[in-house]
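Z., the sequence and structure:
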Amino acid sequence: MEIPYGISRRSPNTARGPRGKDSRGDEKGKNMTKRTWLFRTAVIAAVAVAAFALGTPDVWAQGATPAPFIKVTVSDEAAKRTLMKAVINADTARAIVDACVEWQKAQPGNGAIAIFVLSPTGQIIDSHQMDGVVPIGAETGLMKGKTVLYARSSSAAVAQRFRDVDSRLIRLDLGKEEGLSYYFVGGGLPIVVDNQLIGAVGVGGGNADEQCAYQALVKVLGPQPPLTQAQPPAGAAPAQGQEQQRPPQ
């Protein structure tokens, strides 16, 4: 059938847009562009989320910025069950254990240690014993952590406070009925965030137990108070110009 001059062979329902392109094709192109943009946005967002998830699990503190209280303590849901919020969470406890073991392995001689992270009420949240630790090393590590909970200070500070035999003997049984301890050797440190005691760490079996615990806390939680300085044994002659002081009882 002959089509009259001026009548298009295209469907009468197809309108032409500018420059000879029909409007249906323009609409299709716009939809394709929109879908491509949405896809790219979704991919970028997914990559950002994955990078955040992969890059932050082992990072609690950021340089001199302490780890936030909410990140290192149990969730609100867990606190509702236990009625305690100021408790170190399991992930942070594991990070401290791993950091201590990593530091110990990097030391000359690579002495074996046992480490315990305790809740404020004395429960073991996480622990690890390296190969070669003798039983007394594990036992003293746990006792150091319990000493921290009982004295609210490092086990080294307790040892420095009660330096003579008599002052220690009268305290050997203190806390035992509550499952706590008074152990007069360095290696136990309090875990404090925002002035709240959220747990304790005790390290035993090595020759730098306190330093191992300290370095782990610094790595995971951020800057920590300075360690207790060692003092001469009780009864030793005082340094020149200094008077010998009796430890507080």
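Residues 14-21, 47-59, 236-249 have pLDDT under 50 and may be disordered. Residues 69-221 form a domain with the Beta-Lactamase fold (CATH 3.30.450.150).

Let me know what you think.
H.
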